[in-house]
Amino acid sequence: MADNHWHAPVDIYCERVGPEFWAEPLNAISNAAFLMAALGGLLIWRRRGADDWPALLLILLIAAIGIGSFLFHTFATRWAAAADVLPIIICLLAFLFIAQRRMFGLSAVAAALGLAIFLGLNVLNGFLSPPGFLNGSGTYLPALAAIFFGAVILQMRADPAARMLFLLTGVFALSITLRSIDMAVCDALPIGVHYFWHILNGLAFYIAIRVVMDYRQTART
To answer: What percent of the chain clears pLDDT 70, i.e. is strictly above it?
Structure first.
C-alpha cells in the first residue's frame, strides 16, 4: 500500500499530457537554471576564499532543488514530488536563517525564533487558503512577504543591499505569478508557463546567494 502511494502519478501541470518520462520537456530541462545558479554561486564562493560554509550549504541546496525538480517533472510521482518540495523548503529556511544572522545581526536563538514564527505563519496560511489557491503557489507567499519586509527594513537603514532584496522580491513575485497561472493558460498555450517558474527561481536563488556572500565581511556566521 505504501509503495503504491509513493509511486502514484501526479499530474498538476499544463505541459504534461501523458505518463511518459519526457512528457514535460520544458519543465524538465528548465531546471538547468538552478544548476547554473549553483555553479555561478560556487565560482564566486571559490574566488572569495572558499571558506564561507553557510553560503556553500545554500549553493548545494540550490543544486539539490534543480535535481529534485527534474525528477518530479520526469517521473511525476509522489516520491518525486517530495524530492522536489523538500529541498525548496530547506533552502528557503536556510536562506532566511542566514539572512537574519548576517543582514540584521540576530543571534542564532533569535534567528531560530524568527524561523519558528515564519513556519507558524505558513501553517496559518495553509489553513486559511482555499483548496487549489493560486494553483498551489500560495504556500510561497509568506516567504515572499518575509523577503519584501526585509528589503523595507534595509531600505529604512539606507543599506545598499536593499536594492538586491527588492530585486529578489520582484523576480520571486513574477515567478509565483507564472506558476499560479500555468493551468489557467492551457487552452491558449498548451505547453503552459511553469518552466518560467524554474528559470526565474534560478535567477532569484542566484541573487539570494550573492546577497548572502556580499555580507560575508561583516557576518558572524
So the answer is: 95
How far apart are the C-alpha atoms of 128 and 136, rounded to whole Å?
13
Task: Confirm whether 15 is domain-assigned.
Answer: no
Q: State how many domains the chain has.
A: 1
Residue whose C-alpha cell is 504556500:
139
Q: CA 121, 122, 124 angle in degrees (round to 5)?
A: 65
211 to each of 89, 110, 162, 208, how far by Cα in Å? 19, 20, 10, 5
What single string gives the DSSP state of each residue in 101-144?
A: HHHH---HHHHHHHHHHHHHHHHHHHHHSPTTGGGGGGGGHHHH
Confidence band of 132 (pLDDT split at 50, 70, 90) = confident
pLDDT in tens, 201-221: 999 999 999 999 998 744 445
CA atoms within 13 A on the CB side of 6: 6
**Mutual orientation of helices 78-104 and 141-156 as an angle, nearest 10°?**
10
C-alpha span between 188 and 218 (Å, rounded)? 50
CB 83 within 8 A of CB 71: yes
CATH code at 72?
1.20.1070
Q: Which residues contact 93 (CB under 8 A, 6 or more apart)?
A: 115, 118, 119
State the pLDDT confidence band at 3, using cuts at 50, 70 and 90. low
Whole domain around residue 121: which residue ranges?
22-214
